[in-house]
Specification:
- The chain is of the alpha+beta class.
- It has six helices and 14 strands.
- Strand 1 and strand 2 (8-10) form a beta hairpin.
- Strands 9-10-11-12-13-3-4-5-6-7-8-14 form a twelve-stranded mixed beta sheet.
- It has a single domain (3-288), classed as outer membrane lipoprotein receptor (LolB), chain A.
- It has helices at 12-21, 146-150, 159-163, 185-209, 222-225, 250-257, and strands spanning 3-5, 8-10, 32-42, 57-63, 66-72, 77-83, 88-93, 98-103, 117-130, 133-145, 168-179, 233-245, 259-269, 285-288.
């Protein structure tokens, strides 16, 4: 099963992973940090013939005003590079050897194009050590309006098709354990906030231009990078997804969207990162959006 997201053809695993990992960025920071996260996704769209699910790997590298996030689904790589000094974002498409270039606005001018997601993240007061690192627990609840998302910026669905999703919602619930004082946590916390701002900004830009390749609605990147309300490195996140609502497609979507998502930090490094990491590879054609 393949899918198309804002003009980009993605394999089945990438469709799932792109929910949270297509658009990422950073702000000016004092140190370099690399965070590796492995995610297991079971059920729904992630279920294959062997029912073994998927285990995408996300590596985020942050250095000063630049960041790079590589999402490896096993059969496809999605890479995003952001430079907040030049206000530019490149989304690499290795198969076509192209780099989609977006201009990223500041938070003051960026407005969400689609009010598709309600999110609530609350501290529970519980604490525990994970991999020897002190972490604090936050509960997570996200409710996504599937009709608004389908009709959003750059969507290829005709209005009548999007209307069939009216009164249908995707609910995401669970918890995340966040390290606020670990090495690199301050830098990663700033990255989380900037990722949300960039998602909002780029979505608005694509909406104004009337289409093209675009990120998903602001908020969805948090499924894999962590939540700005729970600032720090998300050492362990456990979420479940389910569809609720009315309409003839609810039963079908319930089977596709009911998943369990578990993300764990597998490595954190504060070693220096080469400047070449944040440049478009040689041989790529830059395509302005």
């Amino acid at each position: 099963m393949n899918g198309t997201i804002r003009g980009m053809t993605l394999s089945k695993p990438a469709v799932v992973v792109a929910l949270g990992a297509v658009l990422l960025c950073s702000v000016g920071l004092a140190a370099d940090v690399t965070v590796a996260i492995t995610t297991s996704i079971e059920g729904g769209l992630a279920a294959g013939p062997s029912n073994t699910g998927m285990t995408p790997k996300v590596v985020t590298k942050i250095s000063g005003a630049k960041s790079r996030t590589d999402v490896d689904t096993g059969d496809q790589m999605v890479t995003t590079i952001i430079d907040t000094e030049s206000n530019q974002m490149h989304v690499l498409r290795p198969a076509e050897k192209t780099a989609l270039l977006f201009t990223v606005d500041g938070v003051a001018t960026a407005q969400p194009a689609v009010a598709a997601i309600d999110a609530e993240v609350k501290a529970t007061g519980r604490k525990r050590d994970i991999e020897g690192v002190p972490c604090s627990e936050f509960t997570v609840m996200m409710k996504m309006d599937m009709a608004a998302m389908a009709a959003g910026a750059g969507s290829g669905l005709p209005p009548e098709a999007a209307a069939l999703l009216k009164d249908i919602f995707l609910r995401v619930e669970g918890s995340t354990w966040v390290a606020r004082d670990a090495p690199g946590a301050t830098d990663y916390a700033a990255f989380q906030k900037a990722a949300a701002r960039a998602a909002m900004s780029a979505l608005s830009r694509v909406s104004a231009s009337g289409g093209g390749s675009s990120p998903l609605p602001s908020g969805m990147e948090s499924l894999f990078t962590g939540f700005p309300e729970a600032t720090g490195i998300p050492y362990l996140t456990e979420l479940t997804t389910a569809v609720e609502g009315t309409g003839q497609f609810v039963a079908l979507l319930q089977g596709l969207a009911q998943m369990k998502i578990v993300s764990k930090v597998t490595g954190v490094s504060t070693e220096a990162i080469s400047a070449d990491t944040f440049t478009v590879p040689e041989g790529y054609t830059v395509v302005k959006q």
